[in-house]
Amino acid sequence: MATAGEMSEQGPKAASASVVAQHQATLKALPFSDTRDFDDAACGFLGTIESAKIVNAQGRVVWSLEPYGFLSEEAAPPTVDPSLWRQSRLNMHHGLFEVVPGVYQVRGLDIANMTLIEGDTGVIVVDTLTSIEGARAAMELYFKHRGKRPVVAVIFTHTHTDHWGGARGVLGDAMQAAGVPIIAPNFFMEHAVSENIIAGPAMLRRAQYQFGPFLAKGVHGHVDCGLGKTMAAGAVALLRPTDLIIATGDKRVIDGVEFEFQMAPNSEAPAEMHFFIPRYKLLNLAENCTHNFHNLLPFRGADVRDALAWSKYLGEALQMWGGKAEAMCGQHHWPVWGRERIDSMIREQRDLYKYAHDQTIRLMNHGLNAAEIAETIRLPQSLEGAWHGRGYYGHIRHNVKAIYQKYLGWYDANPVNLDPLPPVASGKKYVEYMGGADAILKRAAADFAKGEFRFVAQAVSHLVFAEPDNAAARALLADTFEQLGYAAESSTWRNAYLFGAQELRQGMPKTPPRSSTPRETLAALRTEQMFDVLGVRLNGPKAEGKRIVLNWSFSDTAETFVLNLENSALTYVRGAQASDAHAGFTLARSTLDEVIAKLTTFPDAVAAGKIKVVGDAARLAELMALMDEFPRMFEIVEPKRIVVT
To answer: How big is the chain by its Cα radius of gyration, in Å?
Structure first.
């Protein structure tokens, strides 16, 4: 198989005539003369950090908009969809902005926003960005323009990392010890763990295709992520909430400011909430009413989001607060002002998700499968022409497939798709049936010249999986992905296509080994969640025929567990101890955190007296030897190099 060094280093190509023609049609079809979003994105600007540049303690840049200077040009180049170019330029606004007197946002220092709400004596921080470094920089920028004041509370609107990862940049140890509340929606920890830790290794690799962090910034590469510019690359740690919002209608008075909450579970995130602040006549719909059509199933992977519930939550928000809010800000993008404009945007977003849901189900009940629905469905003109409904992050063509999956699953009921051959085996048979590599490449080149990129990609991908070191096949598939990327309005589609092209030409990026989970994040997990993470690392085939029973007793949390390996599955029972355990361990839960974070080793902790052992301690070592270490990178657009058992 070809190695990265043997792969073509060819650079990006020009946009084809068919892509340029598609862009010209877009310029005619959409209301580019409507520039209100640019006025709104700049409104209330107070100051910023030069180029939004943030570095960590070691001098490494974790965020900067300097590489995106090319977006100063108003006209889109031929290699970028004009609508996506417009959104990319809007997402260049960065700094501290006043939403209304007493409410401020830091935007453009991360893919997400930090909202700062001033109370009687201090400031309430809503969402803490992705990185600790970014959160610190955001707070320093706020203090510079609004004066130093204490943080009196932190609110997490939902479970995605870009909204809580920087919490320790807002709350230091002293503030946590002083009991500054961390408020979040019910089941926050359960979903933060399941979405970001249990399936984290696969998600992180897939996220490279969604967000394009390894793409060069420029008109042939990365321009945006739709929701914001890109993902921050700093340190991340999870802090456990201290106060959960349970039900719609719940209220909190924080530093003299009343918050009215609305629950929105299984919308953009499995645990998410909205709020209204009467003092400021401010509505915040978290990530459920942003300036794009959102994802119902992101490319990185997640539970399918409920479009019907999403629409209903927006309708409920209108019932609760319609006509009351004079400003609406979300945790991405820029605010909207004026009661009429706010209510209109919420109605259109409500109807966008409802239309996508209902029409997908209607066509599904006519017998169309997911691909056929995506090819058939069209938004009504009233939604098609709304800038905030464009598919920069989600897209109607893949959102309808998510809806189909939610109701009917991956199988379209055609038996041919019930148990197909895997990619390498099917690729070899396709190549054989199509008359060999030369015949495929000849036909594909002719279709490429005609702009039939979608089918060329399908056909040549079979050849790449059958003959992964076929340089001509790799080059043509890369060129095809590239044109599909240039044509895409959705940032995630563009990133996926262009990164696929880059990996075919250059191989997978060289990345350092996966770092240990931060101790702070481990400390935020319940012990059950720790054992759940351990369970998915167990190599079942290696564990065949083994039985290991271990007792655990945690002195600082007063918890007891039995950990049981049997039938190649790792299970546990809380609040119990097994009489037939092979070994038992008594320790502080914090010591286990240190071991997993690789701050110490199990033998060293035993030697230091931090862990007391009864029975055969070697059985724990035997269990840990059955655990897989997950690679940071694995092949996606070509065959896997390593066979996993």
So the answer is: 26
Helix (H, G, I), strand (E, B) or coil at 630: coil
Angle of CA points 80, 82, 86, to nearest 5°? 105
Instruction: Tell me if 304 sits within 8 A of 290, measured CB to CB.
Output: no
Task: Determine the 3-state secondary structure of 407 from DSSP.
Answer: helix
pLDDT in tens, 35-83: 999 999 999 999 999 999 999 999 999 999 999 999 999 999 999 999 9
C-alpha distances in Å from residue 417, one per residue of 27, 338, 455, 468? 39, 51, 18, 24
Taking the C-alpha atoms of residue 487 and residue 46, their distance in angstroms, rounded to an integer, is: 36
* Count of C-beta atoms within a 10 Å radius of residue 414: 8
Please state, in angstroms and rounded to a whole number, the distance separating the CA atoms of residues 607 and 206: 41
Token digits for 20?
């340029």
CA distance 62 to 468: 35
Q: What are the start-end ranges of the E strands in 108-231?
A: 114-118, 123-126, 151-155, 182-185
| Token output for 381 | 């003109």
**One-letter amino acid of 133:** E
CA distances from 28 to 21, 476, 487, 618 (A): 11, 31, 16, 71
Burial 368-403 (b: 16+ CB within 10 A, else e): bbbebbbeebebeeebeebbbbbbbbbbbebbbbbb
Interstrand relation of 45-47 and 54-55 (parallel, antiparallel or unpaired) = unpaired
Band (pLDDT 50/70/90 cuts) for residue 9 is: low
End-to-end CA distance of the chain: 20
Bridge partners for 583 per DSSP: 550, 615
Q: What is the DSSP annotation of 516-543? A: PPPHHHHHHS-HHHHHHHHHHHB-TTTT
- Give yes or no for a contact between 368 and 330, defined as CB atoms under 8 angstroms apart: no
SS3 state of residue 25: helix
DSSP 219: T
